[in-house]
Write a structure and sequence with these properties.
Length: 538
């Protein structure tokens, strides 16, 4: 299929199955005017689209999603070009940062990988298409929600794209409320679905509106069978209080991540990899490493020296992945640096606000527990990092344990035995991902975010047990009607075979002087009784 390469007009930052009037412009994008009645109509349309979506096999859906993903890897795709033009104007990320984020979003979306993911989570991806045989004659089928309502934050590039993909794989239509700060990429992704996979696009709506419009939030929640909410803990809790009984609620609240570096790996290569983790989203995501613990068991000053190496690495990567801070954010960085210095840390930074390394140790590497504990009191959403030196992994665990419920990812550089120890400890605290330094900001689609994969959250199971048919007749049935002599022989034969039976006398109303003899048995012995009668007649 040939793609048009001309630039798109001023962007309509929404996508809906029904026409919505244009509202006010916001820079180079236009947002829709939307009412509760509009959302109800959209939800109804999405539910109808869900019926058509369920007619597709999950394999067909995965293939269509892969085709769309491959288009997003093309530099000449109009939607990609528009995203790279607009995102740096609405988010504090430069175009190279946005480009790398988009590449990381779509690269893993292959049909085989998505189907393998479903096989892993569901046992068999075909369980979304039909009842699948299980042991002991049981059959099971997975049903996705009839309609999901997805509320997004706008802190990083591409948030929500995989959620839309996972909903479609579960044959679940999805109504997306993107952040007012970043409605761009979700809308452009939906528009690309309309071009390349219209069967899927009809099951997606992306409609931005202000979070203060509670009547719209209430209308969307009322229509949803599942609600997925990203945002601050306050935002998530506000939504949670509105959720009706029996509606699935999946919360994606505040989380943070860390790095742990063993002394012998605190070298320039590790510094370069950690700089990449820091620079991808400038500490704005749940997988952004806010602090790096250097486990120093021998030579004093390792943590300080690693801080210097990291500062050099951040300076180098600034050319490849420059920052894009607003004036207010630059002021926040300045305040962050001053506060850390006042608390006793050493701050390494260039004249501008492009990066900051804060070393919670003295210049000569002597440890100061009181000073280091203060790193938790100072945070900044920019390209900043705390370096904290400890003398054992147990000290790392002591620092992190009170924060365990907020811990998301842990990047490590150490021997495998120590890595296993870290995984066990931080996994118990609450972490949902342990990986190598340099890979923290690019999780695989298989990652169980917040401890459980969205696909597992979206589906419910129906068990279909073997059906045992009961006999049409129950009780006693007549097997012989005739004269006394033959009836008596049959009755005795049945008694000898251990079959319960009765010999009864009846009268024909038309000839009351001639009795009729009948033999009756329980219905479950009918086949054996036939053998007895055949034996008598022979």
């Amino acid at each position: 299929m040939e793609l048009a390469t001309e630039a798109l007009p001023d962007m309509r930052a929404w996508f809906a199955p029904l026409p919505l009037p244009a509202g006010e412009g916001q820079g180079e994008i236009v947002l829709p005017k939307v009412s509760p009645e509009d959302l109800l109509a959209v939800a109804s349309s999405l539910r109808e689209a869900g019926k058509r979506l369920r007619e597709l096999t999950v394999s067909e859906i995965a293939q269509k999603l892969e085709f769309v993903a491959r288009q997003w890897e093309r530099p000449d795709l109009p939607e990609r070009k528009e995203a790279l033009k607009l995102l740096p104007k609405f988010l504090p990320f430069s175009e190279p940062v946005c480009k790398r984020a988009i590449d990381a979003l779509f690269e893993p979306l292959t049909a085989n990988r998505m189907l393998n993911l479903l096989d892993e989570l569901l046992g068999d991806h075909r369980a979304l298409d039909e009842f699948i045989e299980r042991p002991l004659g049981l059959k099971r089928k997975a049903f996705g929600a009839d309609l999901a309502f997805l509320i997004l934050s706008g802190n990083i590039v591409g948030i929500g794209i995989w959620d839309i993909v996972f909903c479609l794989l579960c044959k679940t239509p999805v109504l997306v409320k993107p952040s007012s700060d970043e409605p761009i990429l979700p809308s452009l992704f939906a528009q690309s679905l309309a071009r390349f996979a219209p069967e899927l696009a009809s099951a997606v709506a992306v409609i931005p509106f202000e979070s203060e419009r509670e009547e719209l939030i209430d209308a969307a929640i009322k229509e949803g069978d599942a609600v997925i909410a990203y945002g601050t803990d306050e935002t998530v809790q506000t939504v949670k209080r509105k959720i009706p009984a029996k509606v699935k609620f999946i919360e994606r609240g505040h989380k943070f991540s860390v790095a742990i570096v063993a002394e012998k790996f605190a070298d320039e290569r590790t510094a370069d990899l950690l700089a990449l983790d820091i620079s991808r989203f400038d500490q704005r995501g749940c997988l952004s490493p806010q602090v790096c613990f250097v486990v120093e068991r021998g030579t004093r000053g390792t943590g300080h020296e690693f801080g210097l190496k990291l500062a050099q690495a951040l300076e180098r990567i600034s050319d490849e992945l420059p920052t894009n801070l607003r004036e207010g954010e630059k002021a926040s960085v300045t305040q962050f640096r001053l506060t850390c210095e006042m608390l006793g840390a050493r701050v390494l930074s260039p004249p501008d606000a492009s990066w900051t390394v804060v070393i919670w140790d003295t210049e000569h590497g002597t440890r100061d527990t009181e000073v280091k504990a203060k790193w938790q009191k100072v945070a900044c959403s920019a390209r900043t990092i705390h370096i904290v030196t400890v003398d054992s992994l147990d000290k790392v665990f002591e620092e992190l344990r009170p924060l365990g419920k907020f811990l998301q990812g842990v990047a490590v550089v150490m021997d495998s035995a120590e890595a296993e120890q870290v995984a066990e400890a931080v996994g118990r605290m609450g972490a949902s991902r342990i990986c190598s330094v340099g890979q923290l900001q690019t999780p695989p689609i298989e990652w169980s975010q917040d401890g459980k994969h969205l696909i597992s959250e979206l589906v419910r199971w129906c068990d279909f047990e073997p059906i045992t048919l009961t006999p049409k007749e129950v009780g006693w049935v007549e097997i012989y009607r005739g004269d006394l002599e033959e009836a008596t022989v049959i009755w005795r034969t049945l008694e000898q075979m251990g079959i319960p039976s009765s010999l009864e006398t009846n009268f024909d109303p038309t000839n009351p002087t001639s009795p009729i003899y009948t033999v009756r048995i329980p219905v479950q012995h009918a086949s054996e009784a036939k053998q007895a009668i055949a034996k008598v007649h022979s």
